[in-house]
Automatic annotation (TrEMBL), chain A:
<feature type="domain" description="Cytochrome oxidase subunit I profile">
    <location>
        <begin position="266"/>
        <end position="536"/>
    </location>
</feature>
<feature type="transmembrane region" description="Helical">
    <location>
        <begin position="268"/>
        <end position="289"/>
    </location>
</feature>
<keyword id="KW-1133">Transmembrane helix</keyword>
<feature type="transmembrane region" description="Helical">
    <location>
        <begin position="409"/>
        <end position="426"/>
    </location>
</feature>
<feature type="transmembrane region" description="Helical">
    <location>
        <begin position="492"/>
        <end position="516"/>
    </location>
</feature>
<dbReference type="InterPro" id="IPR000883">
    <property type="entry name" value="Cyt_C_Oxase_1"/>
</dbReference>
<feature type="transmembrane region" description="Helical">
    <location>
        <begin position="301"/>
        <end position="323"/>
    </location>
</feature>
TrEMBL record, chain B:
<dbReference type="InterPro" id="IPR003468">
    <property type="entry name" value="Cyt_c_oxidase_monohaem-su/FixO"/>
</dbReference>
<keyword id="KW-0408">Iron</keyword>
<protein>
    <submittedName>
        <fullName>Cytochrome-c oxidase</fullName>
    </submittedName>
</protein>
<dbReference type="GO" id="GO:0046872">
    <property type="term" value="F:metal ion binding"/>
</dbReference>
<dbReference type="GO" id="GO:0009055">
    <property type="term" value="F:electron transfer activity"/>
</dbReference>
<dbReference type="InterPro" id="IPR009056">
    <property type="entry name" value="Cyt_c-like_dom"/>
</dbReference>
<feature type="domain" description="Cytochrome c">
    <location>
        <begin position="44"/>
        <end position="184"/>
    </location>
</feature>
From TrEMBL, chain C:
<keyword id="KW-0349">Heme</keyword>
<keyword id="KW-0408">Iron</keyword>
<keyword id="KW-0812">Transmembrane</keyword>
<keyword id="KW-0472">Membrane</keyword>
<keyword id="KW-1133">Transmembrane helix</keyword>
<protein>
    <submittedName>
        <fullName>C-type cytochrome</fullName>
    </submittedName>
</protein>
<dbReference type="InterPro" id="IPR009056">
    <property type="entry name" value="Cyt_c-like_dom"/>
</dbReference>
Amino acid sequence: MTLTIGLLLGLSFFASLLALAFLIWAVNNRQLTITQHDAYTIFTEGEAGHPDDATTEGSQDEGGAARAHHFDTERAGIDAISRPAVVTLISSGIAWLAIGSIFGLIASLKLHWPDWLVGEAWLTFGRVRTLHLNMVIYGWLSMTGIGVAMWVAPRIFHTALRYPKLPIIGAILWNVGVAAGAIAIASGWNDGQEWLEIPWQIDILIAIAGSFFVLPLLATAARRHVKHIYVTGWYYIAALCWFPILFFIANIPYIYSGVQEATVNWWFAHNVLGLWLTPLGVGAAYYFIPKIIGKPIYSYSLSLLGFWALALFYSQVGIHHLIGGPVPTWVVTLSIVHSVMMFVPVIAVAINHHVTVARNLWALKASVPLRFISLGAVMYTLASFQGSIEALRSVNSVTHFTQYTVAHAHLGAYGFVSFVMFGAVYHMLPRITGRSWPWPSMIPAHFWLVVVGFAIYFIGLTIGGVLQGFAMLDVARPFSDSVQVVLPYLEIRSLGGAVMVVGHLIFAAHFLAALIQRDAQAPAAQPHDTRSAVST
Amino acid sequence: MNRMVPLAILALAILAFATLMLVIAPAIQIRSEAPTPGLKPYTAQQLRGRTQYVAQGCIYCHSQQPRSIDQAPDAERGWGRASVASDYAYDRPHLLGTMRTGPDLFNVGARLPSRGWHLTHLYQPRAIFGWSIMPAYPYLFERKEHAEPGDVVIILPADRAPKKGVIVAKREALDLVAYLQSLDHTFPAPTRAVRDDGYAEKGEPR
Amino acid sequence: MESFEPYEEFKPIPLPVLIIAVALALWGVFTLLDNGKAVTVGRAERSDQIADQHANRQNGAELFVSRCATCHQPNGSGVEGAIPPLASSPFLKASPEVAMHILLNGIDGPIRVGDATFEGHMPSFASVLSDADIVRLVTHVRGTFADRHDLLTEGDVATARLLAGRRGAWQGGQEIAARLDASLGPQPPMSSATQAAIDPIAQKLVSQGNGQTWACASCHGMRGQGSASVPRLAGLPAAYIAKQLGDYVTGKRRNETMQLVARTLKPQDMRRIGDYYSVMRAPSNARASLGGDLVRGERLVLDGDWARGLPSCVSCHGPSTFGVAPSFPALSAQHPEYTAAQLTAWVSGTRDNSTGRLMNGIAARLNDADRRAVADYLATLPPVPAPATRGRTNGK
């Protein structure tokens, strides 16, 4: 058995390395027919070189929105088709963000006020915390991420969204599914595994809803009006293929048990981040950063390396959640090695994102959405580097089982994906409604609240987690030390979290105001020629 | 990167490969292990208690996977020897956990065997540990004027006891404690057992 | 507007990225190659643990030296007036089952060997010796001291072991002669003076509690044997137990649960509980479980390590670490998690109540490996036999 496993293990890693080497060779020898020119796919003729942003102070004047739209005449037609689906998805997502982050704050407070709200079963820490996770992952991030994809995909494919009604039905079903899942969790009915708490019976509904998102997006990609698939499209197509399979396999009832189930659990849970939220976030950043700046990304060949290396390595990192646990040594080692190899795609993506922004720093000043998105991209780099280091056995001994991991998870899911989504929404909504944001000063307010709040959250909890880990490893200190040492940092986390929640409520209110404003007045920017955009 | 179908197929192939390595291969290896000698299946009451453990979300603060003494002093804290895959043969769903806001519970039945202690602790952890941040679970208990036959009255220090009447455990609490008491893995692990030996001290085995 | 920057049509992958990729790949290959070795070491550690629990690596003579010679002397002469000799003992000349049953159950009562009568206080070795160990030891001892060579099988030991847990120590030679082998000749009767009177008040406190706190037995077990970090209490000196309970109240010894318990107990309750446990006998359920080095542990327990300023355990806690009343508790058959936790508690200050604060200094000089070695080795020793002073501390 040892020999066969060793062999399998070696083969697996060598297969990944071989694929990586082949990819590098192919890119460097121009075997893949993509060029830097393809990076211009996201621009219409004459648009490249001009910033595209509707939230800058300069563009708040009368001509601002119009000027941005000047370059979007063709797409205005495309945008109009996807508009109802995008608005439904994003408004659902933001509603889940508001509710979900309030539950997060309650859970955080309960950790240092353990006798607060203990009378009702549904308000116990174990349930409130789980409600937070499921609402923000499956409600906020997934729905908003899909909503952004529904808006971006037609633009990069130069054609209108196919089956544009399906996503609306999907969004309704998905909302019902997440709400039913939340009610189930609150009432104590859950499947018992992290990230998979929603009962599998309810998951069936969510899976059906998901197919209503996947189908239109893939159909749109298949019938695109441009030969090349822009890098954002790779991430979206791959994510849309990956997530349904992940979700289905992990939720099959009755066939898993014991430690074997734990490997499925963490294979799934990490891939939700790696093969679902990350592609949604990285894909969006790959579109919005060059789009807002008005210049193509730094190196298109690097983006190929970034994408395929992510697929090869991210898919096998999950078992680093079980380091030192009762699972086979080889599968843990395999996940550790792949976690460390994640440096390769992350560096590739980081060079592309950050060099593009660094060469155009002026744009950060001008555009708050770009600030959100490029800061999100920086946090992707940091979260990934941190994750790779955290997977090393020596580091993991300290950080595993502590609040450090919680801080890390938030750096990825919040600092990276949520920030990119915030920026994307700020960029998109004026183009969807045809109007500027009603309270422009609320956008930087939201930005600074979540940046400061998250900085407090992350730094506090990271320090607390390390202290907690060292206390737990020191046998001379009783277990109570690990609790007492982290307590002040849990309080700091609540403070940071509260500031973040205020930011979210401002964001949600602002978004609502922008929507109501549209309903109050007839949409100003009607598509000029819808037919020409949708004709195939 | 101009064609969608090859892109999708390759992406799916990579995921299939990852699934083979992280799901199927470990499953084959772990499923071939017999339950650790000495491991007993759960009784009906313990299983009901296990459902309570899941429903209350105990897993979010308590792990059930002691680490090896080469990695961490879990064994010295009384949390038990390093667990192995075959210790979990009867666990559905698995409850390994990833946080230790509270201590590991894989051997809580051995190091804290008292039902009465657990009931007090569930009702109000701070009645025992002033520093504890574990939630209190008063909704698993009820206050009665007088205990009826068959009621389990919980013991509380004077400053935590109700002014009138007694606190008795509901069935949920009794089930949960029965499950906790069953967490006793003090039997030895087989030599060839499966676990992450990555921390085993390098050098010659003594 | 910024002017349009000239972009190259094609950029190869930057060299630093390639170098990083190659370096990480090499590290990955190395790490994977190392994987197989870790599994081998892990298995060796588990197999050592199983072996430690059964101590099955010693032959009969080695077992005799490590387990018997401390009391019975290396030449089997015993100690006049205290420990019966093995040489020419009728108990060894009898069928091999007699020696086997004595090893499994221990003796707690008077026996006659030759012309002398001894107050028997032999511990049970059931927890210490495996079936195979007992076969080897009995064969060695009977062959060496009684020139008897008929054999015992492991099956015989396994069958007898099933009963041993239930019946407790032999109540002197008379019971052995009556139950096992009449050829032992006349044996002294069990005197009623050594029969401990069970204190009903203490018994109620231990098994049901006092209504204000949890019963002692709910954690320490009905036989006071404890488990994991809950200590074994059976056979500890009465005064020691009472003192610990008092120290929980004053805070010289800290443990949240025990402090709550002790505060509900009156001083006379504490003494009653101490008396109750001091005469209690229970088979050992402790086993080495911290991965400690038993050879090193044995050396530290029996000889200490004067280079590091460590006295032996036996120098205060008595031969075989059976304890020296009133202040020095028995250490043998104690759970290693508990022993190790106390040794760290002396260092961290959560416990500060040893005689002359001796333990603070000793514990501070033990490193992690030594602490585990000592705790594990003590767990492999037989439980304390009946104390010579039993019954007396009841003050009657």
